[in-house]
Design brief:
Number of helices: 11
Order of helices and strands: HHEEEEEEHEHEHEEEHEEHEHHEHEEH
Helix content: 25-40%
Largest sheet: 8 strands, mixed
Low-confidence stretches: none
Strand order of the largest sheet: 1-2-8-3-9-16-10-15
Oligomer: single chain
Mean pLDDT: 96
Strand content: 15-25%
Number of strands: 17
């Protein structure tokens, strides 16, 4: 089975995770894809194949004769898709990219415009897998899953390509920051690993945001507006005050590269109570701490205006910049660069404006940079991946595993 066909099969499984859920995995439907992978991996003849109670899939490719002493390498991808856009009933199709606009859904007038997405010109001449504009595609990260399993299938079929033991792991709930929480590192037994969860072909990522989630709860006093003077404390208006005090030019829409941000994800409420949900991100650990402290200062300002007990701020760190854990292991990064170049792809280092399972795993003791999948515009209806990138990335993984 070609990687493209494998990918098209996987995206038919709706695996959206749910941040509000307290179950593990957060949605039972992720186990549906996990069960399919277990079946395929067993058919390929891999060892130790299982879907555990936490929703993680494990499998092991044994070392070829003479390579048993090689350090075990882990390849990791995630099963779930982002909660913000539906991943159900994905209607994917292949289109030849000309570099011009692509009409995704003529009935609804949904168009991927080259003026908005200049990468279309870079991919002219390639065959793109796109959506119909009503769902995301799921290349994040079913492309990574397909590439890893296709690489394992190739090595099983070509025993002349010598390699050490390889551990495969597919996790649930990466999109809600829980993907690495239940990975059994002892079971993996790996010296180092690579997540296959990045963007355009050739990207190598070993720097990511320090990340936290902030929940702001504002308590108001509601009373009939006709007699509200001096008595009402409108929580909805106080929420607007809080938002106005957050630096407006430090939102995602105004930042790039290494610049951090505050991102308002949701707000709801009325006169009595309002709730704001934020993401706080920064590559620099000191700036990250400063950003978290900013929320406390804003809360203090509002309480000085409206009284104590008005604002509750709860901040929970999610993950940290894996750079500090990976720079001491340059050989892991160089191995990835060699693998890309072996198939004619020039690697380029990119700071992640987000995070991966590899960030948490690196701090748990498994150095784990992130490799490209080949996809573009994850988490939305304009997501696509070139068919050529799916196949090229599979070749990169084969090289990665067989390097001496």
């Amino acid at each position: 089975m070609q990687t493209t066909e494998r990918f098209l099969r996987y995206i038919q499984y709706d695996t959206q995770s749910d941040e509000a859920s307290q179950t593990v995995p957060s949605t039972a439907k992720q186990r549906g894809l996990g069960a399919l992978l277990v079946q395929e991996l067993r058919e390929l003849g891999l060892e130790g194949v299982e879907l555990d109670e936490k929703g993680c899939v494990y499998a092991f490719l044994p070392a070829t004769p003479g390579r048993e002493a090689d350090p075990v390498i882990a390849l990791i991808a995630h099963l779930d898709t982002a909660p913000g856009v539906s991943g159900a009933q994905v209607q994917a199709r292949r289109v030849l990219c000309t570099g011009e606009d692509i009409v995704l859904n003529p009935e609804r007038g949904i168009v991927m415009e080259a003026s908005v997405f200049p990468d279309l010109k870079e991919n002219a001449g390639k065959t793109l897998i796109v959506t119909d504009g009503t769902t995301l595609l799921g290349a994040d990260d079913k492309a990574g899953v397909a590439e890893i399993i296709s690489a394992a299938a190739y090595l099983q079929a070509h025993p002349e390509r010598a390699h050490g033991r390889v551990a495969l792991c597919f996790t649930p709930d990466e999109e809600i920051g829980r993907g690495a929480d239940h990975v059994d590192l002892e079971k993996l037994g790996a010296a180092f690993g690579y997540t296959v969860d990045g963007g355009p072909l050739g990207t190598l990522e070993y720097e990511n945001f320090n990340a936290a989630g902030a929940q702001v709860r504002i308590h108001g006093v509601n009373i009939h507006p006709g007699e509200a003077k001096g008595k009402m404390k409108n929580a909805a208006l106080m929420a607007a005050e809080f938002i106005a005090l957050v630096p407006p030019m430090e939102a995602p829409g105004y930042t790039e590269g290494y610049e951090g941000f505050y991102h308002l994800c949701s707000l709801e409420g009325d006169e009595s109570e309002a709730r704001l949900s934020w993401l706080i991100r920064d590559h620099d650990r000191e700036n990250f701490q400063r950003r978290k402290e900013t929320f406390g200062k804003i809360a203090a300002v509002l309480e000085a205006r409206h009284g104590p007990g008005t604002v509750e701020v709860t901040i929970r760190d999610s993950y940290y910049n894996m750079r500090e854990k990976l720079l001491p292991h340059p050989e892991i990064l160089e191995r990835a660069r060699r693998a890309f170049r072996a198939v004619g792809v020039e690697p380029w280092d990119v700071p992640i404006r987000g995070g991966t399972d590899g960030a948490k795993l690196s701090f748990l003791g498994l150095p784990c940079p992130n490799l490209s999948t080949g996809g573009y515009h994850f988490h939305g209806i304009y997501e696509y991946i070139p068919q050529e990138s799916l196949e090229a990335m599979t070749a990169v993984l084969v090289e990665l595993l067989t390097l001496g």
